[in-house]
Amino acid sequence: MFIQTEATPNPSTLKFLPGKVVLENGTAEFRDETEARAASPLAARLFGIPGVTGVFLGYDFITVTKDDADWQHMKPAILGNIMEHFMSGQPVLAGGALGGSDDMEGEFFDEGDETIVATIKELLDTRVRPAVAQDGGDITFKGFRDGVVYLNMKGACSGCPSSTATLKHGVQNLLRHFVPEVQEVEAVM
Description:
Layout: E1 4-7, E2 13-17, E3 28-30, H1 33-39, H2 41-47, E4 52-57, E5 62-66, H3 71-88, E6 108-109, H4 114-134, E7 137-145, E8 148-155, H5 163-178, E9 184-188
Parallel strand pairs: 6-7, 8-9
Antiparallel strand pairs: 1-2, 2-5, 3-4, 4-5, 7-8
Helix pairs in contact: 1-2, 2-3, 4-5
């Protein structure tokens, strides 16, 4: 098994491409070991490596976030754990656990804004999310109120130094261009 590694714009994250489908549908993000143990054997393995602070699972990639540890020391352990996991035949997610990016839970917007929200979501799905996935992250819709679009940034995007620029100059300009009702874009947790 050959696992490719790619740098991301966030120096605290690396993107690992195992050459296999990681999650068939959606994405999953884990920010602590307890949550990972309950939902994902793969994420639990990765949290067992000293320095790992986050694991994000996409369609064909795994993004690992670290604390101030050195990638040079962590990378071999991460590669070994990913390889061991896929060779073991264990599922990526535990039974019943689902990827979370497609969940509409927690979304908020006024009923009269359904058409606007549908357009915003379509633009995010077709133009923004594929580009952000290239960098090992994801951006999902959380809400729309009073001209402000609220987005959740995951994986490499979460805590990335360039995420504010991506949000304000990239996503905000795109949405304003196609949806005149959009005045601003904000990141939420």
